[in-house]
Amino acid sequence: MSNKIIEHSGTIKEKDGNKLLISIIPESSCVSCSVKGSCSTASNEEKIVEIFDATSNYQIGEQVEVFYSQELGFQALFLGYIFPFLLLMFALIATFSLTNSEGLAGIISLVSLFPYYLLLYFFRSKLKKKFSFHLKQKNKIQDIDFFKQIKL
């Protein structure tokens, strides 16, 4: 799978130290995008994304390009939806096979999700760094290859 970059135009709404809040309003190009079904910015409402930028040489109201890797989007989808579903189904089938009790199998399969989401909660700061958006200034020519600059 090629590592595609998904970009959206945005405006800096708030700046607090090295944390930036960026407002993204999807454009008409989202209609023809191949990943619009899995993209949270594909609806017509304003989205606010939080970006931690070490340089913070941006100003409130500045137009920027927000980008992220399509591959990271699929990884987030897997961690948030697919793996918990597989865990739930495995626990349901295993418990039902051992006990022949549908009620007990249902309860245990639901309870099996608690440690998984607790683990995600404890690693939230690490996950927040991994699944983050990146910025580049709009209307500014840059010679930097962003594929090399960020660790995808």
Descriptive report:
With 152 residues, this protein is of the alpha+beta class. A hairpin with a 2-residue loop joins strand 1 and strand 2. The chain has helices at residues 70-99, 102-111, 113-122, 124-130, 146-149, and strands spanning 5-16, 19-24, 47-52, 63-69, 134-137.
Topology at a glance:
Layout lengths: L4 E12 L2 E6 L22 E6 L10 E7 H30 L2 H10 L1 H10 L1 H7 L3 E4 L8 H4 L3
Antiparallel strand pairs: 1-2, 1-4, 2-3, 4-5
Helix pairs in contact: 1-2
Instruction: Output the radius of gyration.
Output: 20 Å
User: Approximately what portion of the residues adopt beta-strand conformation?
Assistant: 15-25%
CATH topology: OB fold (Dihydrolipoamide Acetyltransferase, E2P)
CATH superfamily placement: RNA polymerase II/Efflux pump adaptor protein, barrel-sandwich hybrid domain
